[in-house]
């Protein structure tokens, strides 16, 4: 199944936090994963924040970043998604970052899987914009 994943999913691939096991289930041959290129910066920044809060060691962050670079993830350039992302961000009061994931999923006619509760709650009732799936609901 083709799906777009956001940074909230990718971070969980390398941490032991809530919903991590469900997020890791996406790392199978059954799923064709994609994301906007900004996912690399967002995930690295999330790891940096965890390191600064002493929730991850420097070594575990280094390892996670290395593993993330090898993840089975196809990325799309953000420049081609900006116009649609702008419209989504304005219409649904989301950040451009969130809207880029939504725009990619819409452009690929596939679901967006997230573990970001704010994003999920904001768009869960807008199926005409994108099919949004909560991380625990993906089989």
Write a short abstract of this structure.
With 139 residues, the chain is an alpha/beta fold. The protein is 48% helix and 14% strand. It contains seven helices and five strands.
Structure overview:
By secondary structure, the chain is an alpha/beta fold. The protein has one domain: 3-Layer(aba) Sandwich (Rossmann fold), CATH 3.40.50. The chain is built from seven helices and five strands, in the order E-H-H-E-H-H-E-H-H-E-H-E. The protein has helices spanning 7-12, 20-24, 39-52, 58-69, 82-92, 96-107, 117-123, and strands spanning 2-5, 32-36, 73-76, 112-114, 132-134. It has a five-stranded parallel sheet with strand order 3-2-1-4-5. Helix 7 links the parallel strand 4 (112-114) and strand 5. Helix 3 packs antiparallel against helix 4 and helix 5 (82-92) crosses helix 6 (96-107). The longest helix is centred in the first third of the chain and has 14 residues, at 39-52. The termini are close together. The relative contact order is 0.20. The mean pLDDT is 94.
């Amino acid at each position: 199944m083709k799906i777009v994943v956001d940074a909230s999913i990718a971070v969980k691939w390398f941490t032991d936090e809530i919903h991590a096991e469900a997020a890791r289930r996406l790392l199978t041959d059954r799923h064709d994963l994609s994301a906007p290129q900004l996912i690399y910066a967002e995930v690295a920044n999330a790891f940096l924040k965890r390191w600064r809060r002493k929730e991850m060691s420097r070594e575990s962050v280094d390892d996670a970043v290395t593993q993330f670079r090898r993840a089975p993830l196809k990325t799309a350039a953000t420049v081609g998604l900006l116009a649609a992302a702008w419209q989504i961000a304005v219409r649904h009061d989301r950040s451009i970052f969130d809207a880029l994931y939504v725009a990619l999923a819409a452009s690929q006619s596939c679901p967006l899987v997230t573990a970001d509760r704010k994003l999920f709650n904001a768009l869960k009732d807008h199926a005409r914009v994108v099919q949004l799936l909560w991380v625990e609901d993906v089989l």
